[in-house]
Amino acid sequence: MYILAGIIDFFTSINGIFYTLTYLVGGIPFGLLYGKYLGGVDVREVGSGSIGATNVLRALKQSNPKLAKKVAVLTMLSDALKGVVIIGIAKLVGLSYEAQWMLAFLAVVGHCFSPFLKFEGGKGVATTVGVVAVFLPFEAILGLIVWFLVGKFLKISSLASLFGVVCGIGSSFFLHPEIPHITTHTPLVLMMCIIFYKHIPNIIRLIQKKEQKVI
Fold first, then answer.
1. Helices first, then strands: H and E counts in the chain
2. Is residue 128 included in any domain, yes or no?
3. A single Gene Ontology molecular function, please (predicted)?
């Protein structure tokens, strides 16, 4: 009874409500929805099967190249804003910085392990960039720059994403040796670990030199 009461108290508390809501919002598969309703394609059946912007671009490019770019950008922005909106609301209602960082982490978890897709999901890069930008904009910008440059010259999305994440989060250890208000890099490291975990198939293909390029 005490355990049940504790669970009920947690999920009815302001923090618990925000945590649950963030995970659910983070799990919304925008890429899948946009692909189906704007492009008439199930992105899970094309390319890598991911619901992220890169696979949306790959899936729709076959039938409508112009639409593909627009939907891919829309997917990327939607995924990036998942956590940002919730964190913004959390700031307004006065949730602690510790709770806000937990929301950032849960947005990434929701995207990568969506409750709407049998706990499958995307790679978490765009969502991570969005939530990190709320707290550490310089690190987010640096990560985006590296992502853009690697993607532009090597044309391999997964490699660009991994380099961008490593540089963006890695730079936080130099730019902010102690993360403001929480003094720990743990949320950032956990996000990076999830992203690398979701990229394991890509990493294997990179090692085998079989990873597809985005043309």
1. 11, 0
2. yes
3. glycerol-3-phosphate O-acyltransferase activity
Q: How far apart are CA 180 and CA 124, in angstroms?
A: 23
Q: How many CB atoms lie within 10 A of CB 138?
A: 13
| 215 lies in some domain | no
| Domain count within the chain | 1
With vertex at residue 103, the alpha carbon angle to CA 97 and CA 108, rounded to the nearest 5 degrees, is 135
Residue 185 burial class via C-beta count within 10 angstroms: exposed 0-12, middle 13-18, buried 19 and up: middle
pLDDT digits (tens, 9 = 90+) for 12-69: 799 999 999 999 999 999 999 999 999 889 999 887 788 999 899 988 887 888 899 9
Assigned domain for 122 exists: yes
Report the distance separating Cα 192 and Cα 128, nearest Å: 8
Record the tokens describing residue 102, joined without a space. Answer: 């937990």
CA 85-91-95 angle, to 5 degrees, is: 120
Domain encompassing residue 128: 2-207
Question: Nearest-CA neighbor of 202 among 136, 158, 165?
Answer: 158
pTM: 0.94
Give exposure, 41-62, as e/b (b: 16+ Cβ within 10 Å).
bebbebbbebbbbbbbbbbbbe
